[in-house]
Structures are given as C-alpha cells and as structure tokens.
Amino acid sequence: MNNTQHLPQHHVSNIVLKVGGDFFEDEQAQASFFASVATLKNQGHNVAIVHGGGAQLQTQLTALGFKSEKHEGLRISPDEQMPAVTGVLAGTLNKKMVCMAAQAGLTGVGISLADGNLAVCEEVAPMLGAVGYPHPRSAKLLHQLMHANLTPIICSIGSDLNGRLYNVNADQAATCISSLLYADLYLLSDVSGVLDENKQLIAHLDDSKIQQLVHSGVITDGMIVKVKAAQEASRTLGKAVQIGSWNDVSILIDELHRNTGTTITSSGSSS
After folding, report:
1. CB-CB contact of 240 with 270 (8 Å)
2. Three-class SS state of 55
3. What is the pTM of this model?
4. Does the structure show a pLDDT above 50 at 216?
C-alpha cells in the first residue's frame, strides 16, 4: 500500500513534519503518513509533528454562526472566536492525531505552542484579531519527550506572556518548532509542491524566483504563507526546506532519489 519500509538509512536527525489541508478527511493518507513516521522513528530519527486544521475549523465556526474570513492566507480570528478555534485545534484534532499515531504503534503526546514554554506569540496585526506570530523559546519539553521515545504532536495554538491565546498559521508554527530542534523541515499538504503557471511542479525555488512568482500572481494566498515560512526556516537553519505532499513522505526524505516536492533555499542557507 505504501513504500515506507524502503526509507533510506541516513544519519540520525531531528525531523519536523507539518500536515494540513485535507489530511483529516483522508484516512488512507493518515495511515500512510503515520506508517512513515513509525519507520523514521525505528531508524532512530526524532520526529515532531505540527498540524493545523483549516477545513475542520471552518466547519465548526460556521456551525456556531461565526463569520470566518482570510486575509493574505491568514484566518482572521477575533478573540471571541478563540474558544472555538482552540477547541478544534488543541482539542478534537490534536487528540485525533494522537489516536492516529497510536494505530501506527507510536506513543504520541498532544501539546500546543503554549505548552512547556515552547514559544511566545505576538499579535501579527490588529485587523487579524488573535492571530499570532510565534517566537521560539525553549526546546526542553520536546527533548524530554523525544528522549522518552514519545512523539510530540503540536497544534498551532499559542499564547503571549499575558495569557492571550492566538491562532498561529501552522506553517509558521512548524518553522518555530524546527528552529527549536534545528530540524529538517517538511511542510506537507494535499499538493505535490509549489506549482508554476501551468500547474507543473517546481523542483527548486530561491529568494529571487519566489519574489518573481509572488509578484506575477503564480504563488498566491496560503501558498505565499507556506513559501515564506519555508524561506524563513531555510535562513534560520542554514539548510533547505521541503514543501510537498503527505502522501510522499518516504520519497521526500530520500535525499538521493527524491523526485517530488519543492526544495526551498533562502539567502544564507545551503542547498
């Protein structure tokens, strides 16, 4: 059903996998993804998973009578919506992820950016409401969990020093976690990578090409946020970041035979 058992042997590393899009609607994709995670862990890699949940959040907000809009790929999140946002992301979806992990033989621990002093958030812009940008603080909790052979599953809810809860873009949350762990970062969704104007996969993007594609309208909305998060992570970590599909985890992590996904490199990073 999948080729996760053929993942190559690499040096042991920290890996951050971010999932989003329609992941929670696709049981086959979930099973394949967590089988890949189990294989990576069996090879000795440390794996942390970061998730969003836009479609499920939209459904819940609509059911509660809330109007939900996006601005430049970020969901406007008034403070009065945050109990519902937190309930979906840190509650229902986070615990579903823990259960999915268990089915693959993993012991997952569901947490948020607000736990364990992982990050502190600041408001992105007043017009967006409680949308936060996460700044990494401490990797201590993550290291303790990984040392105990537990798999951190981190939702994109954060807080500031005053206790205000924030909805954080999951790609930015994953970038934050990868910075804490100096991890290889894979931003996964339901598309194979960044596509050009003809819907063909772009194998590699650097700063100038990204700027060109954003300016020409080829990269839009949520993909802008994803690509910029990858750029930031690449600059911070000094290495390339992968954007691809959660169906292709085993191929994406095979550096020698990778034939899918988009490799993002930014100034100061190596390819």
Report:
1. yes
2. helix
3. 0.90
4. yes
